[in-house]
Amino acid sequence: MQSQLQELETTYFTLQSQINMLSVACQTQEQRDALSTQYVKARENYWACVNKAFHDDDPQVAKLTDQIHAANQQIAGYVQQAGDIAKIINDVTNVVTLGTQLASMVITV
């Protein structure tokens, strides 16, 4: 299983490194706003979990981590192709929502 923090980091850093290119690909201000909102949420998810831990034996944590990993791989492929921006924003929203669910499961050590 991938590290939970690593997956949240991958989401955030992928968006961070591609935000300008993706913003240019947006066709409307609504799309740019949606992308920006998801970028901010991805950053918040990542930083909320830095120096914290998860219950690795929790099946929900494992399931969310696996889903985020798969979505991160899919988004990386889209970014390379700069395909349908509406689909990219939808998939980014999905992975960030999963990240928010995962971040809510962080425990204080």
Account of the 3D structure:
The protein has 109 residues and is an all-alpha fold. The chain is built from 4 helices and no strands. The longest helix is centred in the middle third of the chain and has 23 residues. The protein is elongated. The two termini are 21 Å apart.
Characteristic key phrases:
elongated, mainly alpha, 109 residues
Based on helices, strands and strand pairing, what is the structural class? mainly alpha
The Rg value, from CA coordinates, equals 14 Å
Low-confidence stretches: none
Major beta sheet, specifics?
none
- How many β-strand stretches? 0
Arithmetic mean pLDDT: 87
Run of helices and strands:
HHHH
Fraction in beta strands: under 5%
As a percent range, the share of helical residues equals: over 70%
Distance between the termini: 21 Å
Overall morphology: elongated
Short description:
With 109 residues, the protein is mostly helical.
Write the layout of secondary structure elements.
Layout: H1 4-25, H2 29-49, H3 59-81, H4 85-103
Helix pairs in contact: 1-2, 1-3, 1-4, 2-4, 3-4
